[in-house]
Amino acid sequence: MSDAESRSQAAVTTAAADWPDVERLFGIRGEPSRCWCRFFAVTGTQWSESTPEQRKAQLRDKFDGDAPPPGVLAFRGGTPVGWCAVEPRGCYPRILRSKVLAAAPEAVRDPDANQVWAVSCFVVAPGQRRTGVARALLTAAVGHALANGAKAVEGYPVDPAQRPKAAPADLYHGTLGLFLAAGFDVVSAAVPGRAVVRLTASPAGTGTPSSA
User: Of 35, 85, 92, 177, which sits 20 to 30 A from 42 (CA to CA)?
Assistant: First the structure.
C-alpha cells in the first residue's frame, strides 16, 4: 500500500473550524482559494465587485466575533482534508433569494431563517474524495448546528440521477444520496435535480435529530 493510500484510509476526525486550518486547506490555488466560501454569503453585486483577497478577509472575520465558527473541518493525521460551511440560513442572502428555495412550499420558506441552519458548501481535498470525508463533515455540521441552537438543518443537494452531466466541481452542495443517508428528508423537489432537504432537532430529552 502506498503512503497516499494509507493516508486516505486513516480515520477521519472532525471539529469546529478554526481559521489557520481553513486557510491551510483552501490554499492558494483552485476554486476554494478564489471563493473562500463567500458565494452564498454575499449578494450578486457584492460578489462581482469583490476580489479573492477581500473574500478571504470576509471569511477570516467570521472567526473573530462571538458567533460560532461558520463551519466544520475534517482531519486525517492532523492534516485538514475537508470543510463544510454551516450557518444560520439568514447568513446566506443568495440562498434566501435562490430559485431552489423560492420554489419550495411556503412552510419550508419560514420567516425565521436563523432557526434553520444551512449546509451550503463542501470542500474536500484532492485525493480525499470518496473516502468518507463528506459523510463525516455532514455529521459534524449537523452536530455543530444543533449544539448552537438550530431547530433544523437544511441542505440543497444535487441529485446526480437527474443531473447526470454534473461534474464533480458542480457537487459542492453535496449529493442527495449523502444527505438522505444522514437522515435528511426531502421537503421540496420543485426544481428538478436540486432538492431542499431538512433534518429537525428532536424534542428535548429524546436524543437524536428527527426527520422533517
Answer: 177
